[in-house]
């Protein structure tokens, strides 16, 4: 079961990267890829491809166009690919440290204001 999950994760990543390349070449709305060409590129078809595309669609990372079988990446998908997942925790830690120092400064200022 775990192997299948890892394979699906890799397939979803590859699908997003393919759609991202189309976005870079043609733009956000014209950068579309057909399901058929995506299937051929990824070597996945049928239920496997559908399951993973549905997952990406549900997460808001891709959009399915009214013209059936055309798929493109969303702004959320672009952000997801372009965001360094390793940097996110570091950014959170940095933000929390700044908040802590601001709170300490406010507390000190409040205490100083109460002194006669």
From TrEMBL:
Name used for this protein in its record: Uncharacterized protein
Native organism: Candidatus Glassbacteria bacterium GWA2_58_10
Organism domain of life: Bacteria
């Amino acid at each position: 079961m775990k192997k299948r999950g890892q394979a699906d994760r890799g397939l979803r990543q590859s699908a997003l990267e393919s759609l991202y390349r189309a976005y870079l070449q043609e733009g956000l709305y014209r950068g579309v890829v057909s399901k058929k060409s995506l299937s051929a590129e990824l070597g996945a078809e049928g239920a496997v491809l559908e399951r993973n595309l549905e997952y990406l669609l549900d997460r808001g990372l891709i959009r399915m166009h009214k013209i059936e079988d055309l798929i493109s990446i969303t702004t959320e998908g672009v952000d997801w690919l372009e965001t360094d997942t390793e940097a996110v925790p570091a950014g959170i830690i940095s933000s929390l440290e700044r908040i802590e120092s601001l709170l300490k400064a406010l507390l000190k200022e409040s205490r100083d204001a109460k002194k006669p």
